[in-house]
Design goal:
Blueprint (H helix, E strand, L loop, with lengths): L3 H7 L9 E3 L2 E3 L6 E5 L6 E6 L3 H17 L7 H17 L1 H12 L3 H22 L6 E3 L5 E9 L2 E5 L5 H14 L3 E5 L6 H12 L7 E3 L4 H10 L5 E5 L2 H13 L4 E5 L5 E4 L6 H13 L11 E5 L3 H14 L18 H16 L3 E4 L3 E2 L7 E2 L2 E4 L6 H4 L6 E7 L2 H8 L4 E2 L1 E5 L3 H10 L4 E4 L14 E2 L8 H7 L1 E9 L1
Parallel strand pairs: 7-8, 7-10, 8-9, 10-11, 12-13, 12-20, 13-18, 17-18, 20-21
Antiparallel strand pairs: 1-2, 3-4, 5-6, 6-23, 14-17, 15-16, 19-22
The chain binds nicotinamide-adenine-dinucleotide.
Length: about 500
């Protein structure tokens, strides 16, 4: 919990111009380039971040490689690595309020959610993988008597982590923590739209005793610093979360350079399916509203397509609208508000353009659709509900990544599953039903990385988040994520 007094004590603290972290030293970009950081709360400049050049990326990769080969971290005894990672988690918790408010000033997430989902979740992720370090074993394979076959797990080398602007600490930790636990060095590229909390995290990692060069941070433009990472011949893995378009570019970069291993966590257009036998329609409507509108819809797993059985369609939409109307949108650092700001002006313009296109395509605007609080200079948008959204429409097929939901009616379970699977994406889903068999059947038939039943959202560090289809590959979280950052090596020993 955080009080308004605590928030107000942190919300106006000056923020120094931010630098790159390379080899344990904070430094300016090699050509002195910077990017202005604009707060979505009021559109005002907060500070600047350094715009890394490809030469800076080279330096960061060299420092990561050097320390990896020297073994300061990669060969440190498990107990030593565990201690540092637990210390990082301790420092995140100690600085949780500061980190949360800093992140909100940068990306506009409502403070209550930011506190829980950002430092709270990041600290838990560091602890989860800290604990794994001395609990995940290699293997001895069954062989003939005269052979001993050992399967070693080894760190891969240099991991490039490229992350987006929504939940930067949480998603950053999903990459950094397992990569470090496995013994790798990391070069982190935060989004140009939300770098501040990750830069502070890097500072805390140094304070916790992470050896210099093991974690490097190159802020800046995706097309420059991100692309330089994608093309770098000495990065072994890129773990990426962001849009499908950037994911495609990274695949191309990997193919054109060293065929680096690529893990992609991309967008979603997640179906939230409400069957007529749902136990409590109003509860389903309330949770569904939160499932799309929290963080202004800037949640990769947001339930952005609601599929409703026709017999309950009108009653459901009425309730969904009633819950949307109750949400108070405004300053994300006012704890009385439910929903904060859209992260950038560009994102807000994109959200509004989706509304225009949906209307032009013939969908029915039931609620919202407009910018709010323009006088503040910040970027705010009404929760927006469309009905009569056909499966061929832009709003049904493409991710808005904003507070806009498409509602579509269906008649049968088969049709619902067909609609649910009717896009190129497959990140998350939900089904609401009191029929146990139908719940299991639809979990089995819907192609997405997670299917919620009678809820929307909710997850733990010990379960994977892994996209299907064009939502990506590999998994963040759980021990499966640890495996991504390891090589398996067999020692075949003749006895
Ligand atoms: P984005 O693809 O624009 O940017 C993501 C990161 O990639 C940023 O750090 C950016 O600087 C970098 N980048 C941009 N161009 C690049 C290039 N050419 N080469 C290398 N790096 C480059 O995405 P975004 O707008 O920051 O994030 C929103 C997207 O992320 C949405 O599609 C959302 O669904 C997705 N997302 C997915 C998950 C998940 O777990 N699957 C989680 C959160 C967000």
């Amino acid at each position: 919990m955080i009080t308004q007094v605590e928030i107000d004590g942190l919300r106006n603290l000056p923020i120094a111009a931010q630098k790159l972290l390379i080899g344990g030293e904070w430094r300016n970009s090699s050509d002195g380039g910077v990017i202005e950081v604009i707060s979505p709360i009021d559109g005002q400049k907060l500070t600047t971040i350094a715009a890394a050049t490809s030469a800076d990326v080279d330096d960061a990769v060299s420092s990561a490689r050097e320390v990896f080969e020297r073994g300061d971290w990669s060969r440190m005894a498990p107990a030593g690595r565990m201690k540092v990672m637990h210390k990082i988690a301790d420092l995140i918790i100690e600085h949780a309020k500061e980190l949360a408010v800093l992140g909100v000033r940068d990306n506009g997430t409502e403070i209550g959610m930011a506190l829980k989902a950002e430092p709270g979740s990041a600290a838990g992720t560091f602890r989860f993988y800290a604990e794994a370090i001395d609990k995940v074993y290699g293997e001895i394979a069954p062989t003939a008597d005269n052979v001993l076959a050992l399967v070693h797990r080894e760190p891969v080398g240099v991991v490039g982590a490229i992350v987006p602007w929504n939940f930067p600490l949480m998603i950053g930790a999903w990459k950094i923590a397992p990569a470090l636990a496995a013994g790798n060095s990391v070069v982190l590229k935060p989004s140009e739209a939300a770098s501040l909390s990750l830069l502070r995290l890097a500072d805390l990692c140094l304070a916790a005793g992470l050896p210099a060069g093991v974690l490097n941070v190159v802020t800046g433009n995706g097309a420059v610093a991100g692309e330089a990472m994608g093309l770098h011949p000495d990065i072994d893995i890129i773990a990426f979360t962001g849009s499908g378009g950037t994911g495609r570019r990274l695949m191309d970069c990997a193919a054109r350079s060293n065929m680096k291993r690529l893990y992609l966590e991309l967008g979603g257009k997640s179906p939230n399916v409400i069957f007529a036998d749902v136990e409590d329609l109003d509860h389903a409507a309330k949770v569904s509203a939160a499932g799309i509108f929290r963080n202004s819809g800037e949640v990769c797993v947001a339930g952005s397509r609601i599929l409703v059985e026709r017999s309950i369609h009108d009653g459901f939409v009425e309730r969904l609208k009633a819950h949307a109307e109750k949400l108070v949108i405004g300053d994300p650092l006012d704890i009385a508000n439910n929903i904060g700001a859209v992260t950038t002006k560009q994102q807000l313009d994109g959200d509004l353009a989706f509304v225009e296109r949906a209307q032009a395509e013939g969908a029915t605007l039931v609620y919202g659709g407009k910018q709010l609080h323009g006088e503040s200079g910040g970027f705010y948008m009404q929760p927006t509900i469309f009905t009569n959204v056909g499966s061929d429409m832009d709003l049904f097929q493409n991710e808005v990544f904003g507070p806009v939901v498409a509602v579509t009616a269906f008649d049968t379970e088969e049709e619902a599953v067909g609609l649910a699977n009717g896009t190129e994406l497959g990140l998350a889903a939900a089904v609401w039903t009191s029929n146990l068999s139908r719940a299991h059947r639809t979990v089995r038939n819907i192609k997405s990385g997670v299917v919620h039943v009678n809820t929307y959202g909710g997850a733990g560090n010990n379960v994977p988040l892994a996209g299907m289809k064009q939502s990506g590959n590999g998994a963040d979280k759980s021990l499966h994520a640890l495996e991504k950052y390891e090589n398996l090596k067999t020692a075949w020993i003749q006895l």
